[in-house]
């Protein structure tokens, strides 16, 4: 026998619906602008930004997939497409024959360096400029709380 669903009340549903609408609208507009401004897909941008900001241009494949919350197959396909365009390379890991590193190429560095200023301007225009510092601080606390909660929940 299945448990009775814990339906959302009207206030919870309104908050959830607003969050989803905002997220999808924001990500959709940012994705379209990245494509228009740089010719890169949003997925290209996410991979390159994470590699250059957190990995020093080089990261283990599985660590990168986990960082961006993608399945291994999605990351593999994305890296393959980017490698064909010369944005990244895949290098075997000498310590672990099954592991691999994803490494940004000079062309990948140029692409992210050209796209990042346009992207951050759009983030500022569409998101940051709509909020004051207190709103940003509150939103950061809420997001951190939800992320910490999710980390404790089974996947």
Automatic annotation (TrEMBL):
SMART domains: HTH_MARR. InterPro entries: HTH_MarR-typ, MarR/SlyA-like, WH-like_DNA-bd_sf, WH_DNA-bd_sf. Residues 1-148 form the HTH marR-type domain. GO terms for molecular function: DNA-binding transcription factor activity. Pfam families: MarR_2. GO terms for biological process: response to stress. PANTHER family: MARR FAMILY REGULATORY PROTEIN, TRANSCRIPTIONAL REGULATOR, MARR FAMILY. This is Transcriptional regulator, MarR family. It comes from Micromonospora yangpuensis.
